[in-house]
Write a structure and sequence with these properties.
Elements (H helix, E strand, L loop, with lengths): L1 H23 L3 H23 L5 H28 L1 H22 L7 H22 L8 H33 L3 H19 L8 H27 L1 H21 L7 H26 L1
Helix pairs in contact: 1-8, 1-9, 2-3, 2-7, 2-8, 3-4, 3-6, 3-7, 4-5, 4-6, 4-9, 5-10, 8-9, 9-10
């Protein structure tokens, strides 16, 4: 029970990042830079408390991972500008789940039995169906062509976002496998470097940016509780709950940001949420065997 309670924290913390940051406002570059400031502050606190040993490899690969993460987050914020939080966030989480699972299965041989392929394949199918319904646009909507043009830009941004997120996840989990508490400070430094690059190193400390640093603190808290959930309830529960956080983004985008949906789109979103929920849980089960 304790592990499940721990897992709820990253679910809500990470699921809330998109609509909280967009409620605060700012460009995608300002949002990313502000978020990394908060993440670095949080990482320094963790380092002071935990005192982990930091090797050259940790610093080198941690910084690279942080730069890749900043690419993923920046492009995700960009996609949100074009598609809305309620659409971009579940598509982002879902694409990471699908491609991450496929890479894990066929490149790193994480799926080794027929059970893995049958259940995992069914889970991925549900996620793809969830993609379709969560991003579907009602034909009666005004300016549909204008919306689709923005959606195309959003999909391009999501492609880069998925590449960044998957690259850093594979680097940390499949190639180097660093302890979270040890790598959090080097990664935060890399995140600052990456977000500064997107701003062409013209650093901005305006009120909007500093407010977005609170989002970075949320991300850091989610990271710590993800670790606690994995150690207490197992990686499968922690993994599933963290990805289900995309549902929080859908609800938050509609309720708090006023992203308009027609009755048909609300129905499609509900179908997408159910498919995404079941698919993420099934992938968690596959990872536990």
């Amino acid at each position: 029970m304790e592990g499940i309670l721990f897992a709820l924290v990253p679910m809500f913390a990470w699921g809330s990042i998109g609509f909280v940051s967009n409620k605060i406002g700012g460009s995608a570059n300002q949002q990313t830079f502000g978020m990394t400031i908060g993440s670095l502050f949080f990482a320094i606190i963790v380092f002071i408390v935990a005192r982990p040993q930091l090797s050259f490899n940790l610093w080198f690969f941690g910084i690279i991972g942080g730069i890749l993460w900043s690419l993923g987050q920046n492009r995700q914020f960009t996609a949100m500008k074009h598609m809305g939080v309620s659409v971009a966030n579940p598509l982002s989480s879902g694409s990471q789940l699908v491609f991450g699972s496929l890479i894990g299965a066929f490149v790193f041989h994480e799926w080794s039995t027929s059970f893995h392929y049958i259940l995992g394949g069914f889970a991925l199918l549900l996620l793809v169906i969830g993609f379709y319904f969560s991003s579907r646009v009602d034909p009666v909507k005004e300016n549909k062509n204008h919306l689709l043009k923005h959606f195309n830009k959003g999909f391009v941004a999501l492609a880069f976002s998925t590449f960044g997120y998957l690259s850093y996840a594979i680097l940390f989990n499949n190639i180097m496998a660093f302890d979270v508490l040890s790598v959090i400070l080097p990664m935060a430094v890399g995140m600052i470097i990456g977000s500064s690059f997107f701003m062409k190193f013209q650093l901005d400390f305006s009120p909007l940016v500093l407010k977005n640093s609170l989002v970075g603190m949320m991300w850091g808290v989610g990271n710590i509780f993800m670790l606690l959930a994995a150690s207490s309830a197992g990686l499968a529960i922690a993994f599933s709950f963290s990805q289900i956080g995309a549902i929080i983004s859908i609800i938050g985008g509609i309720v708090f940001l006023g992203e308009k949906k027609t009755k048909k789109e609300i129905t499609w979103v509900i179908i997408g949420i159910l498919c995404f929920l079941i698919g993420a849980i099934l992938l968690g089960i596959v990872k536990s065997y």
